[in-house]
Fold:
Amino acid sequence: MLIHDDCFSWEGFGGVYQLAAGRCRLRIFDLSKSKHGKVTLMKPVIVVVSDLPGNQSPYRGVSVRSCASHVATSVAAKFKIDSHRMTYVEYYPASTYGDQNQHEIPAKLDAVDFTWFEDKALHPKWRPLTSPLLETVQALIAETEEPSAA
Structure:
């Protein structure tokens, strides 16, 4: 069940300079609240973050990857998510390049594992999302994607 889908801003460091501040698209799903919740899951909350398309950020394009620990810490605190019950996923949609957009970079989903110290996410480690969670997250993302203009 989708419980949040919107832009998310995180505060940076350095006072007025707001170093490492940024914005991303944040989707939070709670599988324990779905109608298929007959199986108890160890990590039912799936947090999916992705960079905003283009350079819409006034924060000089700070990526979710470069601030993964800070974003995970901020999301867990703001939405009161138990970090031990959360799967944090970075989503990079498919993109094209070339003179006529003839080359494609496929979509990518990476799970990010953290070492949690008190309420802080530290030492991120990226790994490709694998089955069956990969298919589950792909389906959840597909449900929340806006239809492309035809």
Observations:
- The helical segments are 68-78, 133-144.
- The chain has a mean pLDDT of 85.
